[in-house]
Amino acid sequence: MSKMESINFIDTFAEFKELKNIDRPTLISILEESFRGALAKMFGSDENFDVIINPDKGDFEIWHNREVVADEDVEDPIRQISLSEAKKIDADYEIGETVADAVDFLGFGRRAILTLRQTLSSKILELQKDYLFNKYKDRIGEIVSGEVYQMWKKEILLLDDEGNELLLPKPEQIPADFYRKGDTVRSVVLKVENRNGNPKIIVSRTSPMFLQRLFELEVPEIHDGLITIRKIARIPGERAKVAVETYDERIDPVGACVGVKGARIHGIVRELRNENIDVINYTNNISLFIARSLSPAKISSIQLDEENRKADVYLKPEEISMAIGKGGMNIRLASMLTDYTIDVFRDIDEADDEDIYLDEFNDEIEQWIIDVLKSIGCDTAKSVLAIPRDELIQRSDLEEETIDDVLRVIKAEFEE
Where is the S1 motif domain (predicted)? Predict the structure, then answer.
């Protein structure tokens, strides 16, 4: 019998014992396979050897089985043992019986022992890789938690509760995310790569699927299938729009998602670094869906070009800035949610006959400035005057002097 401690294999056994995800039969099988490989290399065959593994104690036994034959009949010393040699082991042995004697593994030599240890270590690594890939390949789209282990410029390394590595790349982090080592991070499994046998688990906090899974956790009606999330549009960390519907007339899907005094949605908003979330009722009526997607703005009318998936939306002057939103965010999300290119126009009624289109000022205001103002929904003189100066500067990103010149020219026209 050879003891693990005597040849420094106890550490390798310890590594195996730590692999809680590997079942006992697999563990013993791989250990035995490694030892049999070494035996075959040393003796030319492993057929006449018994390998007994005891991973709990960290030891093993190797027994060499040979048939007792007459001294002159020994042809294969691996399978046969002479009667005289057998009687040295035990005087009671007779021809035809089987001798099982312990093999001293130290006799294999240092190189064989080192090779065996390396083989075991590589098999441990293979087991870990296979387990990691198999564990996560069917979990794409699920929420996982990981502890921040290391932070780099382009990605964060997380460890799950079993110590498996998860990667959170910079583009998959919410811009306001800030972590320290040891922090717990929730994310969704985005993809599982397996290049050259090296599994890589990529997780995300910016994916729409992450927002959907958070809703499923917070809203029982979604988890139970009574409410369905039909579409999600996100600008991570800033704003999101979620279209929901239900076939149960007794349920208010928007109210159920928001909760009493916003209780249900508050936890989601906090997890997403105060991302502003609009929940709207889904409908197959595309005009109505576009109108709802531009909430909180109220539209006057819509002209659809279904072939090119374009929509011209007309609004009252005071609604235009809400429809476009800060930095054009609201209209961009509405376009993402509906898959329509949306353009907003000022709805000029008869009472606004005295209003003037900005293009008519191109002799005093440069055309590129007019185009910038039109891009934020200001296509007439009064629509510019309806927006406070500071908000105009912020939304248009034009210089203060430029905005002041525009306001001076427009005001002068009406003062006349």
Answer: 141-206
For residue range 153-207, list pLDDT tens digits in order.
999 999 999 888 999 999 999 999 999 999 999 999 999 998 887 899 999 999 9
Q: Are 142 and 201 in contact (CB under 8 A)?
A: no
**Cα–Cα distances in angstroms (integers) from residue 8 to residues 18, 106, 170, 300, 316, in the given order:** 17, 11, 43, 81, 82
DSSP 336-381: HHHT-EEEEEE---GGGTT--BGGGGTTTS-HHHHHHHHHTT--BH
Question: Residue 105 burial (CB < 10 Å; 0-12/13-18/19+)?
Answer: buried
Which tokens sit at 324?
């476009």
The residue among 232, 233, 177 whose CA lies nearest residue 204 is 177
Helix, strand or coil, per DSSP, at residue 111: helix
Q: Please tell me the CATH code under which domain 145-204 is placed.
A: 2.40.50.140
278: nearest Cα among 213, 337, 328: 337
Residues 359, 133: Cα–Cα separation, whole Å: 61
The domain defined by 283-347 carries CATH number 3.40.50.10490: no
Nearest to 259 by CA among 236, 227, 282, 230: 227
For the chain, give every domain's residue range: 4-134, 145-204, 283-347, 351-415
Cβ proximity of 257 and 264 under 8 Å: yes
Q: What is the 3-state secondary structure (H, E, C) of 70-109?
A: CHHHCCCCCCEEEHHHHHHHCCCCCCCCEEEEECCHHHHC
Residues 372, 399: contact at Cβ < 8 Å? no
Q: What global pTM score does this model have?
A: 0.66
Out of 1.10.287, 1.10.150, 3.40.91, 2.60.120, select the CATH number for domain 351-415.
Answer: 1.10.150
Structure tokens belonging to residue 171: 């583009």
Q: Which residues are within 8 A (CB) of 369 and not within 5 positions of it... i.e. 6 or more apart?
A: 398, 402, 406
Report yes or no: 163 and 96 within 8 Å, Cβ to Cβ: no
